[in-house]
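#lab-general

N.A. 3:47 PM
ok so I finally got the sequence cleaned up, no stray characters, all 280 residues accounted for. can someone with queue access submit it? mine expired

B.Y. 3:52 PM
send it over

N.A. 3:53 PM
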Amino acid sequence: MVLTSTSVGGAVFPLVVRQVMAGAADWRETIFVLMAICAVMMLLPLIFLIRSRPEDIGLKQAEADPPEIESRMAGAQAEGTTLKEALRQPEFYLIAFATAGLWFCLNGLVTHQTIFIGTELGIGIDTLTLITSVFFSFAIVGKLTLGWLSDRFNKVLIMFGSVLNLIVGLFILRLADYGSVNVLYTYAVIYGIGYGGMFTMMQLVIAEFYAGKSYGRILGILTMVDIGIGGLGIPAFGLMQGAFGSYMPVLEIMMGLNVVIAVTVLVLYKIRGKITAVNS
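B.Y. 4:20 PM
back already:
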């Protein structure tokens, strides 16, 4: 639920762009409008809603953090795999490969999809902004649905299903021809669900393996790797498109990489099952 806000922005702001540009504004004027909206949305909550201390809302520290809560938190923090132990485990590197590979694909595709759909497929700005809005609207569905499922079923298996969802979405996008608007909306729905769901599942799967006193450090290292590799996906998509002269071969490469990631997640599922069996 917490992660849905980014997708809400992704769903709403393309419609704002569409409306502003419909009034004969160019992209520079549109950026100024977005900048003003973002400034208001960031500053007003900080000024009027966010509070840093219990005293700011009429509470004392003891009332804000009752001793029993502190005791439970301390007990939870005492458990779990240490960072040194994690670095000696193969599953740590499998998780790093899977999550970094996913970020590589997701960042690259989301950054380049508007260019691909708008230029290579020839879709106009009005339809393109609607497709983008649908994409992020269903990312909200993915985050909520997969989060709900992960509370009830094996988290690693749910992540595997999400990767399959991404593969299907890429396959549908690969089939898109000039003017295939319905196919693009189908892509936006399916890949959007997988895209949003992966935001939830990557963090939950890391917690599934490494929740405990070292979780923050382990998550920090994996996040650093994810951001580094994920950032490379954006220029890599552009370089590959330049080399091939089309995004279509790039989509095929991404499908292949996602298949490898799906196999990696299945291996993690097997490892997690063995760990659970040993602990029980």
